[in-house]
Amino acid sequence: MFYPALTIAGFTVLEALRNRLIWLIGIMIIGVFALSEFAGELAITESGELQSSLLAATLRIFSVFVVSLFIITSMVREFNDKEFELVLSLPIARATYYFGKLLGYSVLATVIAVLVSLVVLLHAPATQVLLWSASLTCELLIVAALSLLCMFTFNQITPAFSAVMAFYLLSRSVSAIQLIGHSPLVDSGTVSQWVINAIVDGIAFLLPNLDQFALTDWLIYHTGDWSVMGPILGQTVIYVGLLVAAALFDLYRKNL
Fold first, then answer.
1. What is the spatial distance between Cα 236 and Cα 252, in angstroms, rounded to a whole number?
2. Where along the chain do its domains lie?
């Protein structure tokens, strides 16, 4: 199982190189960097902080967007070209195929996180950038596993990508929604408000706290501490494990 999975992972990385994915990432980085420099020149005060925040936030969103979209479109093309059936006609298990794909996409996610971190290094200390990069890598690994699951579930680009983006945005914003719902300015004595808060709290319990991943504050105020990586790594292991289990269940139940 190990060597076939490595072979599939290698071809997955090779496909990304042939599709000029690295070139796309390079163009994206240059464009965002130029935008942050322009915004810094317009700022009257704290131009460095503005550049760091704009650069980090934009690169993080673009990284998630590119990783998810590449995985989904790559898998759709593989399904449409019958490459998936061709691979499964060989004496390998479906789990081997899945783990090979996940490993290849995880390597790409790690490379993307490192590349964008090299640019952020121009505006922040190395220790803070290293912490931010490690956290971003964990975030992209969750997105990669989720993208594979959504692809196996929906089999189409639009619903799969929409589901990934909805999951990501909700995971990033659910803590803020909780704060609004439990605000003292909100009348929490009504039954409807209690039900809404209970639903939001339940959703927040099920979702990863992605709002604690790759914080821009670390780069601006240099407040990052490596102790935060414990909860981040724990959440990454748990959610990637759950997503892998769900994807394998969905993959094995398909009649191909």
1. 24
2. 2-252
